[in-house]
């Protein structure tokens, strides 16, 4: 049994906002709890959608978007239920960090979680086994955070398992309508895999990054999210746009070939730009060593052809840091 308790009755119709309480006994507060904001907007029968912001605490676009939807969506426009968490890993989001300062937990590497585990593991368990267990869809709003920058607004989804799932997933991604959709292998510790285990379809976004908020990306993601909620029949009324923001192009991502990593500590000089099409073997970056001035820089090369969709935000780099992420366009 989960140790978390929601002040919001998830079975009640109407617009309800409160906190999921995560018991947290510490020196300054022996009987204290961590307040994870949650809202439920429910009316009658229809699909159930869980929308997460702040899965990673240094990704702010989703937090802005989810909190605005909580204020703006009226119950009379809803046919089903919206469950909204603007700061899913609240300790991380409150600190503006990717991981929780309480346990160094990365929520999107913690599923399926543990009911009586560390704070991050307990949050993951509650999201998967209480919220996603009742959901038909998960929308998980990410961005590049502090260390990465994505090229514009993108979507990710786990590669479908069969033709029927592919049809439903492609239709859902087109209805959301961000410029790019990446299909990738599943990872069992991600929220998207948690959704799949609970029988829900999942879309994850990657909206810019660099630890700041771009108005245009929030605007496009808002239009796409409201349009897809209308498309599945959950939402009607004045907020639903008549079309998605873009016509989506589809890409595939290989976890090995499409990433460039540093193997040295130094200063990262990118040799390719976001949105650029590169070819296998093309120089990707130089790592410089100003503390050893006579040491020549190391040149790294791309291991595949594709479009540069993500790059490291910081120049200072250590061995193991991701420098670039590519994707290859496919037909759908």
From TrEMBL:
Query: From the UniProt record, which GO molecular function terms apply?
Result: hydrolase activity, acting on carbon-nitrogen (but not peptide) bonds, in linear amides; hydrolase activity, acting on ester bonds; metal ion binding
Q: InterPro entries attached here?
A: AstE_AspA_cat, N-alpha-Ac-DABA-like, N-alpha-Ac-DABA_deacetylase
Give a single Pfam family match: AstE_AspA_cat
Keyword Zinc in the entry? The reply is: yes
According to the lineage, what is the superkingdom? Bacteria
- Keyword flag Transmembrane: no
Q: Where is the Succinylglutamate desuccinylase/Aspartoacylase catalytic domain?
A: 46-232
Cofactors: Zn(2+)
Keyword vocabulary terms for this entry: Hydrolase, Metal-binding, Zinc
Quote the protein name from its UniProt record: Deacylase
Species this chain originates from? Pararobbsia silviterrae
